[in-house]
């Protein structure tokens, strides 16, 4: 074929493999071009503005925070903007419900200003700071307010998705007030009775002007209406992938009190020898831990406990000692260290010093050759998280990297912190949702084990000396 | 620590069973006395409900109930939930050999009502057999079920048998949608083989009318204790009530992601790779010269098809990305589309696998779907990792997926409803594009060979799969390579 032929043919670009993530990208002169998209969750072209709707004490902030935590964990940069916070910054001192009276001109003015200030920060986040999703958490109970927000979204090219929470169950509302309102900065100087009284009057201020999302009037909007804490949902016009994921997530969460227990398998033979990965069995101390774990679980007297393990021998051996049925999940398998499987850190430094340095430079995104990254782990653990949300009391017996990922989800840890979270052997973490977050209790079961935690060394440069690389390797046999 | 005679270890106060690794699936299971595996404790399966589920469609004729039933059944079977649909219309056709006219469905036709009730009960009987005797997990009861009375009957049936109930109602008043529905699936129905189009349409519209007066849609108030999803206007709006468990949650998610907008899905493999030529499996090699030719031909083919808003997806392996590069449009890399991980057999030739791992090679031939390579994956694992890809394919419109042999087999099996036994042997040759277009209740397949030579990588199941077989018997079906 001569070069003068007018062939409409793309000239395939040469490919080079990014050394950190092992992604193949087109390159020019051996240097990578801006790489074409690796599958990211949110393939919308424009940012999304999630807008909560509902009377006070309907769980809007609970939903906002939880959703934000979930989206960030799966890699979608998300931030919540709570208008109540803006109001507190503006007003400094909360006197009483009177502030919220619909005839309080001054109050209305301030509240509107706060909403606009929050929207301004939303714009900053989505248009300037690279955010993908913003959650605008306020009552937004009038059609007028929502119209303002929609105009704002239109002007800025954001998609809008409403999340309305409707609930008339007095018990749910009362529990809500106890859990999150009594402790609010608004009520630090009140006793419980006073606080509840005031808050109920506050709710009343909104009731008359509340215009719920309407099947007919709002038929062009994209929204989910959550009724009675998830008993029923109305979903309208889901526009894209991220909205579909949000709906699925919201439909799987619940507020029934429960606890999630996370722990690793008992100490393994490879652990003892300072080797990573593999599929070895428990060491004698590991077996002892398994026994102690069984007793611990019995003592806790947990209602309908589900036990999950990975498909690796060491977690299953650990579960066997509990004497209760357990479910094996391949998705809970330890991170695949590829060519580094079963090596000691000293050997990795010797055979793959470049890889070892890259890993220290960006432990979250670093993918082992023919293996996985923490980023890959999170993607494979997402169905586990979704099912954990659906379940009640669960004990997850897993592995160091896996446990770090799950913990980061529950405790809202960033990608930078995640790979360095401390998850020592023979220690159970009991997570109990409370208020807007998670209470953590750490229970060390008093069976000794090697330390497998390797801190980030000071020198992460590829030019570093072996000693510098191996400085933080924990002791082993 | 003592190892007691019955092969358990005595440690502390309780006995821990020894574990043995199932040679096929590489799953660790407690072993009994003789080192043989006991019935293994639950491997993660999708449907962890303790009781079977009965899905019941609700809606006027031509609202997509059968479309939904078949599609849902296909999806659930693919993700390994044994599911079967029971179409009451089918039972009616078997009972009333010849369909005369809509008069059969008139609400005042006593004889008709009697037959229709019998058919419903016959279908429910088969449902019971499937769920209770034959190990089925989900049954889809596909009929109009438009009256509260009929649904009561079904409720009682489910209660008596310990089945969970989930209703799927389709409500639609858009005349265009209904008309298109009639054209797509009713005109070709056995009921209308002897009518011309106009007659068929006229009769069917009257049939719909027969149901309209007695139609009692699921009601937010009256039916607030039932578990259901109400699909309004082909997915514009959904009402979801009382989702009880994991499988219902998955069903709802699936139903909320499917659509009926016409589109095509193009499936193909990467161009021939260097390892392909050498007869080696797996790895991450680049395209051979012929593979590059194919990539260019693919680019030309795609352009000539003039596809609206085509999305292109690849795996994260070099050979699919190289192929996409030649197409010259933006593409998205999915790790989930990576080829099956052959573990210790990566980059080996079949001859070498036979030499080094003859037992593994035989086990694979015995059950290719469930067989997991040591330190690798099985087709069963592949399906689980491809599920989000399928979900996103359902959401999308025109998509070209450039992937790999085992992956393409899994995706194809989903679209063409192929069971686990056939899936690993589906023919997905190099340099051939499959164009899948949803039509009626299924998928039209067009196979387009782009006329660039390539090695054959398809290995049929040999006659002898026994562990004791000779090497020659094992290697009988290995395709040629250099």
TrEMBL record, chain A:
This is 6-phosphofructo-2-kinase domain-containing protein. The active site is at residues 265, 334. Keywords: ATP-binding, Hydrolase, Kinase, Multifunctional enzyme, Nucleotide-binding, Phosphoprotein, Transferase. CDD domains: HP_PGM_like (cd07067). In the C-terminal section; belongs to the phosphoglycerate mutase family. Gene3D superfamilies: P-loop containing nucleotide triphosphate hydrolases, Phosphoglycerate mutase-like. PANTHER family: 6-PHOSPHOFRUCTO-2-KINASE/FRUCTOSE-2,6-BISPHOSPHATASE (PTHR10606), 6-PHOSPHOFRUCTO-2-KINASE_FRUCTOSE-2,6-BISPHOSPHATASE 4 (PTHR10606:SF14). InterPro entries: 6Pfruct_kin (IPR003094), 6Phosfructo_kin (IPR013079), His_Pase_superF_clade-1 (IPR013078), His_PPase_superfam (IPR029033), P-loop_NTPase (IPR027417), PG/BPGM_mutase_AS (IPR001345). GO terms for biological process: fructose 2,6-bisphosphate metabolic process; fructose metabolic process. One of its GO terms (cellular component) is cytosol. One of its GO terms (molecular function) is 6-phosphofructo-2-kinase activity. Substrate binds at residues 264-271, 314. It comes from the Eukaryota. Signal peptide: none annotated. Residues 43-257 form the 6-phosphofructo-2-kinase domain.
UniProtKB/TrEMBL annotation, chain B:
Keywords: ATP-binding, Multifunctional enzyme, Nucleotide-binding. Residues 48-262 form the 6-phosphofructo-2-kinase domain. InterPro entries: 6Pfruct_kin, 6Phosfructo_kin, His_Pase_superF_clade-1, His_PPase_superfam, P-loop_NTPase, PG/BPGM_mutase_AS. Pfam families: 6PF2K (PF01591), His_Phos_1 (PF00300). In the C-terminal section; belongs to the phosphoglycerate mutase family. PANTHER family: 6-PHOSPHOFRUCTO-2-KINASE/FRUCTOSE-2,6-BISPHOSPHATASE, 6-PHOSPHOFRUCTO-2-KINASE_FRUCTOSE-2,6-BISPHOSPHATASE 4. This is 6-phosphofructo-2-kinase domain-containing protein.
């Amino acid at each position: 074929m001569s070069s003068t032929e007018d062939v409409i043919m793309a000239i395939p670009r040469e490919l080079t493999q990014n050394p950190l993530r092992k992604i193949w990208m087109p390159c020019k002169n051996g240097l990578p071009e801006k790489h074409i998209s690796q599958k990211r969750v949110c393939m919308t072209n424009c940012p999304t503005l999630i807008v909560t709707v509902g009377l006070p004490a309907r769980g809007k902030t609970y939903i906002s925070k939880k959703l934000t935590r979930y989206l960030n964990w799966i890699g979608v940069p998300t931030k919540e903007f709570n208008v109540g916070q803006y109001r507190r910054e503006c007003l400094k001192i909360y006197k009483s419900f009177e502030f919220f009276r619909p005839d309080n001109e001054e109050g209305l003015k301030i509240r509107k200003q706060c909403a606009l200030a929050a929207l301004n920060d939303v714009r900053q986040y989505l248009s300037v700071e690279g955010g993908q999703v913003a959650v605008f958490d306020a009552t937004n109970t009038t059609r007028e307010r929502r119209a303002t927000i929609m105009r704002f979204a239109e002007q800025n090219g954001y998609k809008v998705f409403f999340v309305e929470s409707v609930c008339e169950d007095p018990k749910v509302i009362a529990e809500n007030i106890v859990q999150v309102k009594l402790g609010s900065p608004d009520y630090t100087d009140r006793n419980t009775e006073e606080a509840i009284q005031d808050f109920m009057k506050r709710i009343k201020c909104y009731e008359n002007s509340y215009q719920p999302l309407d099947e007919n009037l709002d038929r062009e909007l994209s929204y989910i209406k959550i009724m009675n804490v998830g008993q029923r949902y109305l979903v309208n016009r889901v526009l894209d992938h991220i909205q579909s994921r949000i709906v699925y997530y919201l439909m799987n969460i619940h507020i029934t009190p429960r606890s999630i227990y996370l722990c690793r398998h008992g100490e393994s033979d490879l652990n003892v020898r300072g080797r990573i990965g593999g599929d070895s069995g428990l060491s004698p101390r590991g077996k002892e831990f398994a026994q102690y774990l069984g007793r611990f679980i019995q003592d806790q007297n947990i209602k309908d406990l589900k036990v999950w393990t990975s498909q690796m021998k060491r977690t299953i051996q650990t579960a066997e000692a509990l004497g209760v049925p357990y479910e094996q999940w391949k998705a809970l398998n330890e991170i695949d260290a590829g060519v580094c499987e079963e090596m000691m850190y000293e050997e990795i430094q010797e055979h793959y010093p470049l890889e070892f340095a890259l890993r220290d430079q960006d432990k979250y995104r670093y993918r082992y050759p023919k293996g996985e990254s923490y980023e890959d782990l999170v993607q494979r653990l997402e169905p586990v998280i979704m099912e954990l949300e659906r379940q009640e009391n669960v004990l997850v017996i897993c592995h160091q990297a896996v446990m770090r990922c799950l913990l980061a989800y529950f405790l809202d840890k960033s990608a930078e912190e995640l790979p360095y979270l401390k998850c020592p052997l023979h220690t159970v973490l009991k997570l109990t949702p409370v208020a807007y977050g998670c209470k953590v209790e750490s229970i060390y079961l008093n069976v000794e084990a090697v330390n497998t935690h390797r801190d980030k060394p000071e020198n992460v440069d590829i030019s570093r000396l072996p000693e510098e690389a191996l400085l933080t390797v924990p002791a082993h046999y």
